[in-house]
Design goal:
Structural class: mainly alpha
GO biological process, one term: ribosomal large subunit biogenesis
Order of helices and strands: HHH
Keywords: Nucleus
Low-confidence stretches: none
Number of strands: 0
Protein name: Nucleolar protein 16
Strand content: under 5%
Oligomer: single chain
Shape: globular
Mean pLDDT: 87
Organism: Rubroshorea leprosula
Family: Belongs to the NOP16 family.
Amino acid sequence: MQRVHVGRLIEKYGDDYQAMFMDTKLNQMQHSVATLEDLCKRYHMFGDKNPLIVSG
């Protein structure tokens, strides 16, 4: 579920983590800038796949 929210933030703001942080509608969990950056990096690493299920 979190991948959906992170995906929407990336679609709207690209890599502008400060703008993501300020958007309280899409960033309902009120993640910090550093947390958003980590979430976005993981999102780009795994895409729409579930990282718990990905076999490597």
